[in-house]
Specification:
Blueprint: H1 7-10, H2 13-18, E1 31-42, E2 49-61, E3 65-69, H3 76-83, E4 91-98, H4 105-111, E5 112-115, H5 127-139, H6 145-158, H7 179-190, E6 197-201, H8 209-226, E7 229-234, H9 239-242, E8 247-252, E9 255-261, H10 263-271, H11 282-290, H12 298-313, H13 316-330, H14 347-362, H15 364-384, H16 395-411, H17 417-432, H18 438-468, H19 474-501, H20 505-522, H21 534-537, H22 540-543, H23 545-558, E10 562-564, E11 582-584, H24 585-592, H25 599-623
Parallel strand pairs: 3-7, 3-8, 5-6, 6-7
Antiparallel strand pairs: 1-2, 1-4, 8-9, 10-11
Helix pairs in contact: 5-6, 5-7, 7-8, 14-15, 14-18, 15-18, 16-19, 16-20, 16-23, 17-19, 18-19, 18-25, 19-20, 19-23, 19-25, 23-24, 23-25
Bound molecules: adenosine-5'-triphosphate (ATP).
């Protein structure tokens, strides 16, 4: 539990001002105002519509930290998202003004940032690295390395993280920053682009009251000293956390119950007959009087809420707010964005690759566990199919081992799903904050996988190929490695595609397993392509990457070797070498209908499948924004 108060909490205003940093200082946005915001959604199963935000107005000034409070389902997130320009496919009306004028979405994104409830930090990076990578992604080479370092130092200091700058964020098996420190780091990294307006969705959720207070007080200091606008949706803050806010927006059932400065809250509610008792958490009291869901007498609670809302609608305070909105419009000033150096987009995938590389060697879950799993499988395969001979009895075991080496290995790519989903969540957060798009993400994701999959292919083959006694030549070994590598790459590409489309673990696991099961079934081993029914034969087999790998490995083994029929000369396959009591390996291939000399074609098709899946993943991420 964190109990230390931020140093500046004990200090004077001079201390607070010391936290002001030239790059964070807001002299661009003076007001954020909004007039009659309404959000309507269709009611399921009827033609009616429901207002989940109803006629909400307000004005927030530079240097103000605002609490958006209300019972569960009151519309806090909806209002936060609407103000932040993050509502999609939803009917909205009303206007939002910055400095009294309307702003394009692109310009608004440049002056604002959004901190989600889940911070999606990368556990294997240190606090400083987290900020450094955020800075390099957001600002690329538009600022010098010295300026980047200066900004990071300032943010670490502002959020009390200097002493923890080399601490890892933390993974499930490596403890790192505390919950509160993580939250502070998440907020700090969203300030790297110097937003003037910061939106935070429940910044204290999951934290105890001491940690919540600490996060909010650091934020308050940064907000005050840099004149930022900070808007937080918040559930039920403790009294001390509540008192940190400058103003309160109180919502219930989509309607405003109060908005205004925090010190005036007591006086206002006393004036409408709801005096906040002393020694009582004011946030708790206010939530109680506007909550209908948990009231014992719902009818009375609903009537009370209606009275509070209608008193607010006819209050002098609301008309004063409306006047101020009009005043801001009349005195409209342009939002002049600071000149930013040009960012070099080509550097973004390189930075992402660098970050993924650091993650991959520090986080055992990224690739380490999979390497260990494949090594276990290699030892298992090599010892089960141990030192097969060139006697005809080994032909079927060789074929079975090839099936295992191609099909089962690609099936196990499902182990990559959790790591990809984690990376995808980081991407969605960073894309929403305008850092980079799906092209950079897909390129970096592909290139970070290549060396690791190649390593897995080599390690697996070194162990299993020689233990099982596949055709003992360097060329044949390298061909085997190539097929396995393409197999793993195709299987990983399928995972990337399916998990991009369905970013829910159980769904993408079920679908990837189903597709790999299908590829196994139609790949040529379980049912010979000669008798496979036409439905599967004329589509599934052509896009089944396992089938090309199986064919390639079969040709690699059987086109190079003959097998002895043994005692009695009863050959299991009839080939031209039968009179010599031998089986020509090509005869085995003929049973499957596999031809030699097609390695180039099959490898080309595999590359096309890999590229195809990656392009589809790019398309999905381009279209899907969540
Ligand atoms: N896209 C949507 N379509 C239909 N209903 C929606 C949609 N978004 C939100 N709602 C509904 O609007 C109401 C307000 O939702 P919102 O998430 O804004 O509330 P909240 O105050 O943030 O709640 P909580 O504190 O529980 O997160 C809820 O009843 C919710 O079910």
């Amino acid at each position: 539990m964190e109990t230390t108060k931020p140093e500046s909490q004990h200090g004077t205003l001079a201390d607070v001002e010391a936290l002001a940093d030239a790059h964070l200082l807001n002299d661009t946005v003076q007001t954020l105002s909004f007039d009659s915001l309404t959000v309507t959604v269709p009611v399921k199963g009827s033609k009616e519509e429901k207002k989940i935000l109803d006629n909400v107005s307000g004005i927030i000034r530079a240097g103000e930290m605002v609490a958006l409070m209300g019972p569960s389902g009151s519309g806090k997130t909806t209002m936060l998202n609407l103000l932040a320009g993050r509502t999609h496919k939803i009917a909205t009306s009303g206007k939002i003004f910055v400095n009294g004028g309307e702003l394009s979405k692109t310009k608004f994104r440049k002056i604002s940032s959004y901190v989600e409830q889940e911070d999606h930090l990368i556990g294997s990076l240190t606090a400083r690295e987290t900020l450094d990578f955020s800075a390099r992604l957001a600002l690329s080479n538009s600022i010098t390395a010295a300026e980047r370092k200066r900004r990071i130092d300032a943010l670490l200091a502002s959020f009390g993280l200097v002493g923890n700058q080399t601490t890892l964020v933390g993974t499930p098996i490596r403890r790192g920053l505390s919950g509160g420190q993580k939250r502070r780091l998440g907020v700090a990294s969203s300030l790297i682009t110097c937003p003037k307006i910061l939106f935070l969705d429940e910044p204290t959720s999951g934290l105890d009251s001491a940690a919540s207070y600490e996060v909010m007080s650091y934020l308050k200091n940064v907000c005050k000293s840099n004149k930022l606008i900070v808007i937080c949706s918040i559930h039920q803050p403790s009294t001390s956390t509540f008192n940190l806010f400058d103003s309160l927006y109180l919502l219930s059932q989509g309607k405003m119950c109060y908005s205004g400065s925090l010190p005036e809250t007591r006086e206002y509610f006393a004036s409408i007959g709801h005096e906040i008792p002393h020694f009582y958490n004011p946030a708790e009291y206010l939530l109680d009087i506007i909550n209908v869901d948990f009231a014992q007498d719902k009818q009375a609670a609903s009537e009370q809420l209606q009275v509070i809302q209608s008193k607010w609608n006819s209050s002098e305070k609301l008309s004063a707010i409306k006047d101020q909105i009009v005043e801001a419009q009349n005195g409209k000033t342009d939002v002049v964005l600071e000149a930013q150096g040009k960012t070099t987009q080509i550097l973004i995938p390189v930075v992402l690759l660098h970050r993924s590389f650091v993650k991959s060697y520090r986080d055992v879950f990224a690739y380490g566990v999979r390497i260990a799993m494949y090594m276990g499988l290699a030892i298992m395969m090599g010892t089960v199919w141990l030192r097969l001979s060139t006697h005809q009895e080994s032909i079927q075991p060789f074929i079975n081992a090839i099936f295992f080496g191609s099909a089962f290995m690609s099936f196990m790519a499902v182990a990559y799903i959790p790591a990809f989903l984690e990376d995808r969540a980081t991407f969605i957060k960073e894309r929403n904050n305008g850092l980079y798009g799906p092209t950079s993400f897909i390129i970096a994701n592909f290139f970070i996988g290549v060396p690791y999959l190649f390593l897995i292919a080599i390690l697996f083959s070194v162990v299993s190929y020689w233990l099982s006694n596949f055709y003992p030549s360097g060329t044949a070994f390298l061909y085997w490695v190539m097929w396995l590598f393409l197999d793993l790459l195709a299987a990983e590409s399928l995972v990337v595609f399916v998990s991009s489309l369905f970013p829910i673990f159980v769904v993408s696991l079920a679908l990837t397993a189903f597709l790999n099961g299908l590829w196994m079934s139609v790949g040529g081993f379980l049912v010979s392509p000669r008798i496979l029914n036409v439905f599967w034969k004329y589509w599934a087999r052509y896009i089944d990457y396992q089938s090309y790998v199986f064919q390639g490995m079969m040709v690699n083994e059987f086109s190079r070797r003959n097998y002895e029929c043994g005692e009695g000369c009863h050959c299991m396959y009839s080939t031209p070498l039968e009179d010599k009591c031998m089986i020509d390996g090509d005869g085995v291939l003929a049973v499957y209908g596999y031809k030699t000399g097609k390695n180039g074609e099959w490898a080309g098709i595999l590359v096309a499948i890999i590229v195809g899946y990656r392009l589809l993943s790019w398309l999905v991420l381009k279209i899907k924004r969540t």
